[in-house]
């Protein structure tokens, strides 16, 4: 991995020591054949002597002769020096990300992993940005089912349906007929609040980036992320805000929390705020303080196995937060059903590849909660 002038400047701007970044990149040069291969998305080192590569939808093993324990131990020290975090037997997990190129690095130290081993994962930042039409051609919607609430009788549905807005009625018809590519385009254009759900590696961020291209180019956009993964090349009026990942544990750290960054975003007159992932205390503010307070059209991601699970996952994040702890879980779920309009589930398997097994959309149920 060559150390570029752009990375040198980025390191200084981010508060890192360029010399430590240079040492880390020099140590990572052993993995260069995999780093420059666009088909390799992740590198996993489980033991000295070789690496597992997540490539073209499956793991494959390659021998790396010089990848021994001494190499991994030195790499751990390089990463610790670069991130200014301890990495030893009392601080056994270490995370970092590379400026500009965006790789995420995770290391594990004994005794959390076996003695005389260090685990290493390098997750590459995807530079590919597929147009949504390309995802359609890849079969993303070939097996998609429409999910909606099953608790509303047909006669009640017909009565409530009369109160739908024109775009809601159009989206409802598209969902019922499975016209998903046109559905997603209209969902973004009409400022529906969208959650993309799935496991790590299912392609949530890439899918989200493809949907961002449906947003009119004249809108002012703000992204809130822990790692810069959502470039906005076609939306010149934008801010890309970053928040720190870890808790302070009483220690003063550089940067701001996700919740603090969201508060800042709201003072920047955005048309839309995109949250890369909901994972903690910021969930309540993003849903109620952003999406439900005059700034619809947001998009975010979460880790869940289905659209239904995504609602419960978000509800539990809110319930566990300082602001949501006193709210009944049933009330939180009602808030979510009123605020989140669309849930897109993503998954990956060896037979079908990356695809969308289900999309939740039910504006009639949302209106019934207000009926």
From TrEMBL:
GO CC annotation terms, alphabetical: plasma membrane; type IV secretion system complex
Subcellular location: Cell inner membrane
Single GO biological process annotation from the record: secretion by the type IV secretion system
InterPro entries: P-loop_NTPase, T2SS/T4SS_dom, T4SS_GSP_E_ATPase, VirB11
Gene3D superfamilies in alphabetical order: 3.30.450.90, P-loop containing nucleotide triphosphate hydrolases (3.40.50.300)
Alphabetic keyword roster: ATP-binding, Cell inner membrane, Cell membrane, Membrane, Nucleotide-binding, Plasmid
Residue ranges of domain Bacterial type II secretion system protein E in the record: 181-346
A GO MF label: ATP hydrolysis activity
Main location (coarse class): membrane
PANTHER family: TWITCHING MOTILITY PROTEIN PILT (PTHR30486), TYPE IV PILUS RETRACTATION ATPASE PILT (PTHR30486:SF6)
Family stated for the protein in its record: Belongs to the GSP E family.
Described function: Part of the Type IV secretion system.
Name this protein carries in UniProt: Type IV secretion system protein
Organism the protein comes from: Burkholderia contaminans
Taxonomic path: Bacteria, Pseudomonadati, Pseudomonadota, Betaproteobacteria, Burkholderiales
